């Protein structure tokens, strides 16, 4: 269906979603949003573009190079097209909804645009869908967000879901407790990312056995927690483990159709994250379906801000993890039927397609229009039945 | 809720939709799209940005000054943020769906962005929702599109709908038949727009009585058609009247919960329109809910293209024309309820809000969270009942 000449009509990394994919994406987004709404997450819709500086606060600063900028002729100020909706949510919580009760539960769904595609995700535009839970520091809040992500994804049909829980500050917390020089933190993180025990031993000195133990601890939640319990952790690191254990306990109660794993040193380079973070994967699907975790919303250079957690789902990955819906039956209404002929069928879930000009061969026309049935009298006759009878 | 300082956080004409408005808009869009889908209109989703030149073809050229432009670092070509989705639909029909059967029925819903707001519509971003019916020149196609617009709008609760049918080429067709100098066409159109019979008489010469008759003909469809029939129209103008009469006949006025009017000289300055066009209004709502009509899709400087008709709805106006939905019942689940406590209530349409920390006053916390009920044992107790009993 797509040849190179037609692809070249659009810039790299941007695409048209055609039938039935566009409807499938939209319906899936609304099902996810309904799931979030049912647990009190109220939808907000920030604009596609806003002043550049408000897009670059907090977590947004990591995406500074990914934002398309345009001059606003009205204000004569630079605006940016959002590359991520979460800074917008933090802005709304800190300003327009500053006086709303906490915890504040918000949801969002919208398009984001990036200057360049990534290696794993060549798309430069995708639909981002997620929630934010603002003003709740408790592990019950982390657990609610993880549970909701898992229930929403399994609810739309994702099979083989894995939730990988991480403690993004663990590496730093241990380094600080052992007094490791800060200039070794970067190389140490890289060695841990490579899972390279020799390099870790060289860089971490006295902390090396503990880092090795943290590396080895990764795995299925119950087992990982047992291995973490057996480690001689500094107090702050032990507090992190207790947090993730609390989260696992609440998730267990929810009886989710998902595997929960823990990788205590995974951090994904998102230096704004604190506490428990997580990534969502489906068996056989490349890349993550989404990710989330704890951070401080609305903090600026002077600190401040509120404890927050949340997650974003990337719809291109999510749609790869679920089956497309069954195509509804399509009924052809031959020319002259009149506009009310299809109503009872549509009320029953059929799609009707009205003939707009007299047909020489109504069955052929019905077939060309992708219909499975044709109206004769008051009945929907399958096209196949007509072929078999030679009618 | 909104003060000036908070407004100034966003550029003029751009806004955050807050709860419950954002969910209301999204749900209304999906209800409209479901209506279009049921009659065979398949959803497409073009990207937010694409190469500038493809946004400026056909009807798109009228919006050239409204498009924000960004340089694509990948292709080193200029891209534009769409100000209107219809040129994108025409591009898709002419390229990716060039070999799909005609008539081709497509639907779309998405955000569009404009450099400047208008007098009547200060918003610079709004949700555009609509359909295109491509490759069908028949009046039955015009009628289907008008009927679908009316049924979709009344289906979501619009009351007092008026469909105003227009013949945007009528002024020119009459002028040509009477050999009026082309340099008088602009002033003549303005005089007709002002409904200024003195100026029309001065500018239109021998055609003045006919233009006066066309001005007078405007009104309720049946009466307008009778008045148009009584005029001595040139052949091409008579053909236009026959087209609009056909459309009115096929729409089946008796079955439509809308008033249909005809204004034969209204043209709204959209010089790409041909045949029958229309605008949609609701009683008591400022501005149009949407508009549409016939044009040639995919034509370039060399002509070509396909007969097409369709319409766009502007969601900001549409939402002003319908009642907001009733807020669902909100049930507070006190701290410690466990994640499955709310499931049966959510399945029944409740919204549940989980307490994340031990409450000193659960009822006050429930109220702060906007809940109408609180869970006690297995029951949802109205907060008001608790207050009355002093519990």
TrEMBL record, chains A, B:
Which GO cellular component does the record give, naming just one?
Answer: cytoplasm
**One MF term in the entry's GO annotations:** glycosyltransferase activity
Functionally, this protein is described as follows: Required for the first step of histidine biosynthesis. May allow the feedback regulation of ATP phosphoribosyltransferase activity by histidine.
The listed locations are: Cytoplasm
**Where does the protein principally reside?**
cytoplasm
Gene Ontology biological process: histidyl-tRNA aminoacylation; L-histidine biosynthetic process
Q: Spell out the PANTHER family in the cross-references.
A: HISTIDINE--TRNA LIGASE, MITOCHONDRIAL-RELATED, HISTIDYL-TRNA SYNTHETASE
Q: Which UniProt keywords apply?
A: Amino-acid biosynthesis, Cytoplasm, Glycosyltransferase, Histidine biosynthesis, Transferase
Oligomeric state and interaction partners are given as: Heteromultimer composed of HisG and HisZ subunits.
Q: What else is known?
A: This function is generally fulfilled by the C-terminal part of HisG, which is missing in some bacteria such as this one.
Family label: Belongs to the class-II aminoacyl-tRNA synthetase family. HisZ subfamily.
State the organism of origin: Tistrella mobilis (strain KA081020-065)
Pathway info? Amino-acid biosynthesis; L-histidine biosynthesis; L-histidine from 5-phospho-alpha-D-ribose 1-diphosphate: step 1/9
Q: Which InterPro entries match?
A: aa-tRNA-synth_II, aa-tRNA-synth_II/BPL/LPL, HisRS-like_core, HisRS/HisZ, HisZ
Its name, as the record gives it, is ATP phosphoribosyltransferase regulatory subunit
Instruction: Indicate which residues the UniProt annotation says bind L-histidine.
Output: 84-86, 114, 128, 132, 268
Keyword Cytoplasm in the entry? The reply is yes
Q: Where is the Aminoacyl-transfer RNA synthetases class-II family profile domain?
A: 36-290
């Amino acid at each position: 269906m797509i040849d190179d000449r037609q692809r070249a009509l659009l810039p790299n990394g941007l695409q048209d979603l055609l039938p039935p994919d566009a409807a499938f994406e939209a319906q899936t987004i609304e099902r996810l949003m309904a799931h979030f709404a049912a647990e009190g997450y109220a939808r907000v819709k920030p604009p596609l573009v806003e002043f550049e500086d408000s897009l670059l606060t907090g977590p947004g600063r990591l995406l500074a190079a990914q934002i398309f900028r345009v001059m606003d002729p009205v204000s004569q100020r630079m605006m940016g097209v959002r590359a991520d909706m979460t800074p917008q949510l933090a802005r709304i919580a800190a300003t327009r909804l500053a006086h709303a009760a906490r915890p504040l539960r918000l949801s969002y769904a919208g398009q984001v645009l990036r200057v360049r595609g990534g290696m794993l995700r060549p798309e430069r535009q995708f639909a981002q869908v997620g929630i934010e839970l603002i003003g709740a520091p408790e592990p019950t809040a982390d657990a609610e967000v993880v549970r909701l992500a898992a229930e929403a994804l399994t609810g739309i049909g994702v099979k083989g879901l894995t939730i990988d829980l991480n403690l993004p500050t663990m590496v730093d917390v241990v380094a600080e407790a052992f007094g490791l020089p800060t200039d070794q933190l970067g190389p140490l993180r890289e060695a841990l990312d490579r899972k390279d025990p020799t390099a870790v031993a060289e860089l971490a000195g006295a902390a090396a056995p503990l880092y090795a133990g943290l590396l080895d601890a990764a795995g299925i939640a119950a087992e990982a927690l047992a291995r973490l319990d057996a480690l001689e952790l500094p107090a702050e690191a032990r507090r992190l483990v207790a947090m993730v254990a609390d989260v696992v306990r609440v998730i267990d109660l929810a009886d989710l159709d998902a595997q929960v794993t823990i990788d205590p040193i995974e951090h994904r380079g998102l230096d704004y994250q604190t506490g428990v973070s997580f990534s969502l994967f489906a068996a056989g699907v490349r890349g993550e379906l989404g990710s989330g975790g704890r951070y401080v919303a609305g903090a600026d250079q002077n600190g401040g801000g509120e404890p927050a957690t949340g997650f974003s789902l990337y719809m291109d990955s999510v749609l790869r993890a679920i089956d497309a819906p069954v195509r509804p039956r399509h009924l052809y209404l031959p020319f002259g039927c009149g506009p009310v002929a299809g109503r009872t069928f549509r009320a029953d879930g059929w799609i009707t397609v009205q003939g707009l000009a007299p047909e020489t061969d109504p069955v052929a026309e019905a077939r060309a229009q992708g219909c499975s049935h044709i109206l004769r009298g008051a009945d929907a006759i399958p096209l196949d039945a007509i072929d078999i009878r030679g009618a």
